[in-house]
Amino acid sequence: MTNLLFHFIKDGILHALKGSKLYFTWLISLVALIGIGVFAYSIQISEGLKVTGMTDHVSWGLYISNFTFFVGIAAAAVMLILPAYIFNDADFTKVALIGEGVAVSALIMCLSFVTVDLGSPEKVWHLIPKLGYFNWPNSMLAWDVLVLNGYLALNLLIPFYILFSHYRGKEANKKKYFPFILLSVFWAIAIHLVTAFLYAGLPARPFWNNALLGPRFLASAFAAGPAFILVILSVLDYSTGFKIQKRVISKLALVVAIAAQINLIMLGSEIFKEFYHPTEHSSSAIYLFFGLHGHSALVPWIWTAISMNIIATLMLSIHKLRENHKILMGLCIMLFLAIWIEKGMGLVVPGFIPSPIGEIVEYSPTLVEVGITTGILAGGMLVLTVLVKVAIGIELGTFRSDAKDAN
Amino acid sequence: MKSTIRLGVWVTTLLSLILVSNITKAKILSENPNQPPQEHRGDIFISGIETVQSQYSSLEKPFLIKKRSPALRKSDCETCHKDDVKTNSNTTGTHNDINLMHAAKQGMNCLTCHAMNNVELLKNVNSTQIIEIDHAYLSCQGCHFSQARDWAGGAHGKRVRIWAEPRIVYNCTECHNPHNPTFKKRWPKIISTLPEKK
Amino acid sequence: MRLKDLRHKIMSALKYDRSLASKEIKSDCHSDSIPPTTCPKNPPKMVGGAFGKKTSRRAAIGLAGGGVGAAFAFSACSNMLDEETKDKLGLSWEEFFKKNYRLMTDQEKGETVKRIEKLAKVKNNEIINVSDTPAKDGVLFGYAFNISKCQGYMDCVEACVKENNQDRESNMQYINIFEMENGNLNIESGNSKYSHEVPVEGKFYLGTQCFHCEKAPCIEVCPVGATWKEPDGIVVVDYDWCIGCRYCEAACPYWGRRFNWGAPQIPNEELNTEQHYLGNRKRGKGVMEKCTFCIQRTRKGLQPACVDACPTGSRTFGNLLDPNSEIRYIIENKKVFRLKEDLGTEPKFWYYMD
Fold first, then answer.
1. Which chains touch C (3+ CB pairs under 8 A)?
2. Nearest CA-CA partner of C345 in C256, C216, C166, C181
3. Distance from C100 to chain A by nearest Cα, in Å?
4. Which residue of A56, A201, C182, C296 sits 20 to 30 Å from the alpha carbon of A265, by its own alpha carbon?
């Protein structure tokens, strides 16, 4: 068994290193981007976080924005797992593994973003319960560390078990993994709610301190996540022998459309609350949408995001447009970018502006920050590529323990 | 399915525990009802400071006042001035460096506060009682009674070095120039620096 | 449980035999290499982290190397390193793996304080006196600020920066003085960036800093418990335990916390050498810091530096549990208010006016 496991891992790595020229160009460019990220991080390690655009006023920036967004992407895998394993929708069973791959890579990105944001990453062992001091259950960040790692473990464990069974030419025993599937469904909701509570639990920041934040996080995640997965699936459909059924695409597109509609309703109600009778607590929203006292760095971004969001949602709601594959891909990318802006920088940065005592200091990321962020995104894509490559290899039967000679 | 329910129950219990523990966190002063006050002393930091016992008449706990007289330059006027000295002149003469800017210009003169025959003794505007320099507050309180009350209680003025016992406070004249008691306009000691972007 | 054991093993491997240590310290005190100030007044209390003799130090490093891979590096080439470098490495190593200050025994607190003093000597040639004075019984500190009296001179800010060894490069300041328009108590409309002669007609001045809330949001959110409220009410940060996530900075409704974005720079001659573990000792890069009510002063009975420096008597500090204290007089006799009371943070910082 251990021997087989060893072979599985070895074959997996070897399999990931096989492919066309295009595949290799893709891998090499990802590695190059990771290299840039590592270089930028080395600067940040030696100089401290002063090489970023963050200040005591805006103390979280690009890193935490991306972290927040990608937690949503990770949670969205549940939209494939739910129909595949719980409703036993046969169409989805095949693509669920891809969803889990997306979750794993998104979580690795999240954990990397949190780590690079730390001022003293060498002391991260202080978070390990018993060895360090884990302020659980009081700190929402402690909860987040817990649920993110738990979700990562679940999303590694389930596909690993299934793929390893298939690798050995066996059917995976559903009785064995079903409890974990069930757990991971709840867990997916939990990771995103906990991340929302991280913000919503701060009375110091009225922009975040609202009950709608959690549900809105979920709605936007279930729009952006499946949109991202849709793009991945159609890339796979186009470039590999792993064919995706039309029904899967149209069902997922429907999920995206409904989630985007709900998200838009919530956005509307937030905007109503902030602007119908603006209070002191609306300053952040005023800064975000219209600028405050001549400071308006985020205004063009948020209006781009809002218009893209509205256009994409409206067009996705029209049955005919959604059924057209090319238009669907365009809308998915549009929606993904819109939510990335709105829920990333558009959520995190205005929370800090103005500061709790009314000072306005704006934020824009530096080259180092952009470099590190690019590196992490490339790293996530690399993980995703390798995981998907192996999963597809096994699912298509080109990569099996008994078919090793043929491989 | 059973395990899921158990998990749910567990999580709910935990969450409610957090909530309850937060709500029951009591308020500041009510949390420590009438604890017997313990005396904390800081004598080592005030050695060498000359003090006098306060003569402020009130129910306040007795406290000490930093002596003002050691800091004042004494002059033996009589060595030169055999006759009465004419002061408060707007032209020249002794004490012409003093430009009285206390209250309305017409309202006060030297003898409002200084004793008639000895410049080093003070008096109160309401009585003929003679007051030593180290008890200048007794003179000030003639007009500034509410400030004096706050000063004795602790809402006006300042303590010397320590918060611990014994309580030593500065005299009025340590911070306020009695001839010109308002604080003057000046540049701040340092300028506030927002962490401007590098 | 296992991890805990492992750490315990590493830690004990790094420590001297306790009986040996006290002997060594005595001999150290007579040698010329140690300045007299770093010699312990109370030798038995100090154990690890002392300048050791050649053999014991090497043995300790060797032991650690056996336990942990990383230590191999300097264990193997220990002969090539001079005594001082080895001390530096050994002490830094012990410092890195120490516990959260709250979980330390009194003895461990004493040990880390001594290590910090020695490291400052070996690394930066600073002779400092770090204290670990605990909170006194029956003391709960409170602060009051008279907004009728403050003239905006900022003497307090200057004194604070000097007293607390704040980073001179980024001009870190704990205190903000807001110039406020008469008739408006909304701090968000105040200006803290004024640079002109003060006071200005028609304005008043209001200072903010860490308010040492009884129900501090910053404490709740810290994932590693690196910040907490001491028994005397001071909210402190264990600089060596903070991982630098800045969640507390986001959670503070009063902007009371500051982060070390780079390594703090303080000229040696400006360093305040009277320090406290939880107070003004030098902070590292990438950790949080804040006002500690000058814990190094106030635990001894002195007033905070800002109170001492204020030329107008706008600042009052004292024991809330002492019914005769000035702070109690103010709360009971003046009309006081606190900032953002609606948030339920219960700051121990009251504003009042004449």
1. A, B
2. C216
3. 7
4. A201
Residues A255-309: tens digit of each pLDDT: 999 999 999 999 999 999 999 999 999 999 999 999 999 999 999 999 999 999 9
Separation of CA A28 from chain center: 23
Question: Can you tell me the distance from the alpha carbon of C112 to that of C95, in angstroms, rounded to the nearest whole number?
Answer: 7
Using the Cβ of C316 and the Cβ atoms of chain B, whether some distance falls under 8 Å is answered with yes
Kindly state the helix (H) or strand (E) to which residue C142 belongs, with its residue range.
strand C141-146
> What residues are paired with B186 via a beta bridge?
C198
- Quote the CA–CA distance of C14 and A259 in Å, as a whole number: 57
Question: Is A231 buried (19+), middle (13-18) or exposed (0-12) by CB count in 10 A?
Answer: middle
Long-range contacts made by residues A324-331, C-beta under 8 angstroms, separation at least 24?
A325/A234, A325/A249, A328/A230, A328/A249, A328/A253, A329/A230, A329/A231, A329/A234, A331/A227
Q: What is the pLDDT of residue C196?
A: 92
Q: Dihedral through CA C210, CA C213, CA C218, CA C219, nearest 10?
A: 130
Give the 3-state secondary structure of residue C351: strand
Contact by Cβ (8 Å): C140, B27: no
Question: Between B3, B18, B195, which is nearest A137 by CB?
Answer: B18
pLDDT of residue C291: 97
ipTM entry: 0.93
CB contact under 8 A, B194 and A186: no
In this prediction the pTM is 0.85
What number is the average pLDDT over the span C303-332?
96
Closest-CA distance, B197 to chain A, in angstroms, reads: 8
Name which of A20-34, A115-129, A171-185, C272-286 the model is least confident about.
Answer: A171-185
The CA angle A89-A90-A93, to the nearest 5 degrees, is 95
C249: nearest CA partner in chain A: A59
Q: Do C224 and A131 touch (CB under 8 A)?
A: no
Helices (H), C35-166: 54-67, 69-76, 83-96, 106-124, 155-163
Q: With bands split at pLDDT 50, 70 and 90, how would you rate the model's confidence at C295?
A: very high
Nearest to B63 by CA among B177, B171, B176, B145: B171
User: Which tokens go with B62?
Assistant: 């007795």
Residue with tokens 């409610």: B16
State the pLDDT at residue C69: 42
Q: In what order do the strands lie in the sheet with C315-319?
A: C315-319, C141-146, C349-352, C336-337
Please indicate whether, in this complex, the C-beta atoms of A117 and C245 are within 8 angstroms of each other: yes
pLDDT at A402 over 90: no
CB contact under 8 A, C303 and B195: no
Testing the interface with C: which of A50, A62, A67, A110 to mutate, by most C Cβ within 10 A?
Answer: A50
Nearest residue to A72 (alpha-carbon basis) of A194, A252, A217: A217
CB atoms within 10 A of CB B160: 19
Report domain extents, chain A.
Answer: 2-395
pLDDT greater than 50 at residue B197: no
Place C146 in a pLDDT band, splitting at 50, 70 and 90. very high
- Reading the block at residue C127, the tokens are 């002779």
Decide: C120 and C128 in contact? Cβ < 8 Å.
yes
- Distance, CA of A123 to CA of A360 (rounded, Å): 32
What are the sequence ranges of the domains in chain C?
Answer: 2-127
Sort out which chain B residues have CB atoms less than 8 A from C319's CB and list them: 37, 40, 163
**Residue C321 or residue C72, greater confidence:** C321
> Under an 8 A CB cutoff, do A124 and C243 touch?
yes
Q: pLDDT tens digits for A40-51? A: 999 999 999 999
Q: Hey, which CATH number is domain A2-395, 3.20.20.450, 3.40.50.2300, 3.10.620.30, 1.20.1630.10?
A: 1.20.1630.10
